Amino acid sequence: MTKYNSLITAILLLCNLLSITNAAEVTLSEQMVRAIDNGNLTEVADLVKKVDVNFKQDGVSLVERACFKGHKAIADILVKNGAIVANYCMVPGAQKQIMREKLLACGLEVTPVGNLAYVSGFTTRVLKSSELFFLRHGNTLATENKIFTDTDNKVAFLTDKGKSEIEQIAADIISIKPDVIITSSLTRCRESLEIVLKKLESDEYLVKNVELVESKAVRGICHGAWEGKNKEELIGEDLLTWFAKWNSYVFAKSPGGESLAEVIIRASEFLDFIDKNYPSKRVLLIGHGSFSWALTVLLRVYPDPSNNDYNIKYGALKKLY
Questions:
Q1: pLDDT, tens only, 221-243
Q2: CA 101, CA 268: separation in Å to the nearest integer?
Q3: Is position 88 within any domain?
Q4: pTM, whole model, 2 decimals?
């Protein structure tokens, strides 16, 4: 009997130890959740080696929670320590290989983690147009509230701030004397063009000679199912897709939308169009941020093609070539 009592006591002690261990694990996981919610980068860095980084609370993973809260640095730490982001929406495999080849033809390669890098020794593209400028449309309610949109809707028109931004830059456009102005077909770009044209009225030569072209090719990235939403409204896999796109993974795409790789390829084809139709011309484009970023990558305007922070600011003018 004593033998059985000892065995029972040992089992109870073991169960108690397991219970204490599990309680500690739960406590650490809860601490991690609170640290992420509070944006406490130091605490997350301390806990990341002590918890399961793929732990889920109420079906939401730690990296999803970090993305939802907008804590990019925390999401980075989690991913570097094994958090899984493999289920974000991606370009299909066969299509991806075709895109890789097209990007290589543009002097761009995709790194193992999905970022862009310049191919060393590749000659920077030479355009037939004499100069190429890009004017990004002014601010809208969508941009001011970080809403994804690539259509015309009630939040996609220029605000007073957006109109003021274009008015302030219009004098610089007169000074470059464009031969051709190509604008996106979306209203925020048309509105920007109207403000520019009003300023150009003071220059008789430009009024008579500038050619105006409207093109869907210079539109921004298609957001698909994200249209009309901001990042706080994205849930589940969309959050992981947001994180992937946030880090410039060129093949990541929102459901039904475009990847950065697709925008770059579209921009390359547009440069072919300019070469064919406007050789030796000063060309001004009025368009959207993602398209301007793609052009800067193709023309090697900036040193790091994986950094999409190089976007031209709203209402700003940039010489690309």
A1: 998 888 888 766 765 556 666 66
A2: 13
A3: no
A4: 0.73
